[in-house]
Amino acid sequence: MDFQKSVDLKGLCCAQPIIQLAKEIKALRVGEIVLVEADRDSMRKDIPAYCRQAGHTLLHHDQHGEILRFWVRKE
Fold first, then answer.
1. Strand positions, DSSP E, the chain
2. Is 14 tagged catalytic?
3. How far is 19 from 22, CA to CA, in rounded Å?
4. Catalytic choice (1, 2, 14, 64)
5. Is the confidence at residue 13, as pLDDT, over 90?
């Protein structure tokens, strides 16, 4: 899937991944897609919850080895 930006959240914990993601998405234009890579299992719930709360669309997610990947479209 195409994306305009990638965000590496690996190694971050607590609120830092979502704070970083929000900052990166803010810099995008509506309709652009960010690929998020994370290594914390909690992101399986946190990123979809963030998308619902912020009004963005979680297009797809998968796991590649230990890395969780999420494609989020800014709305």
1. 5-8, 33-38, 57-64, 67-73
2. yes
3. 5
4. 14
5. no
d(Cα 25, Cα 51) in Å, to the nearest integer? 11
Structure tokens at 72: 């989020």
Domain residues for 49? 5-73
Q: Which of 64, 61, 12, 63 is nearest to 22 (CA)?
A: 12
pTM for this predicted structure: 0.94
Distance CA 71, CA 62 (A): 9
- pLDDT at position 14 is 85
Read off the CATH number of the domain in which 57 is found.
Answer: 3.30.110.40
Number of domains forming the structure of the chain: 1
